[in-house]
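Weekly structure sync, notes
Attendees: PL (lead), two postdocs, one rotation student
Agenda item 3: pending single-chain targets
PL asked that the sequence for the first pending target be pasted directly into the notes so everyone works from the same version. It is reproduced below exactly as submitted, 227 residues in total.
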Amino acid sequence: MKFTLNALVMLALSATIAVGAPAHAIAAPSDHSLTPWATSTNWRSFDDDVVDRSPEMNQGWDESARVISSSAHLPVTSQQLRTFWDGNPSTSSPIDTLSFSGNTIAGRDKAGHLLFSDTYRYVTTRVHGLEDGPTEIFRADHLRGRYGYIALMAPEAATDDSGQPMARHFHFRFGATSDVVTEHDHGLVYLTMVDHSASPQERARTVVAFHRAIPAMIDDIGKQLRR
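Predicted structure, written out during the meeting:
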């Protein structure tokens, strides 16, 4: 059976709530500052790894396709997988880079144009937030609307399940209210930023880890397609 459009749509619905690898998150500091996210100056969108054609990333995507094919028992190519993610809402945000300096968060698009920049203050922690894990919510001092609030999971540890180093990454969501940035029933997805200071091999392992994190869902999708 080919990797059909229906499969892609169903995968999109499932993957939007399970994009991250099962890793140990670094606890946020007791003062709820932005320190955990200031550990890199090169946080870039996961979408950049979708389109990266380096030999290392090609190997990572080939392995990811094998993971999905084995789990769902559907033949999936690395290009089909890239095409899916390239059109998935999880990677279609205008934000390509995020930077943290003190209490300031700035986001830029792929052309390097500034989308927003403001001082963000801690509001609260949702114990069951993104990925049903602890999520810190911050509010902009001056911005209103789309970038008024940002929900951040702490960066995940830089090793995969086998103990191999991979690129650190974190998940986040932005929106106009404190509720909209964490509640799944608003129909929003959350986004992923990857530390591009890591080596291509480490970033490739992160891609593979993403896909190893959702095999049960993919298997369920395969069963539905065979009905």
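Discussion points:
- The chain is about 30% helix and 20% strand.
- The longest strand covers residues 114-126.
Action: rotation student to compare against the earlier draft before next sync.
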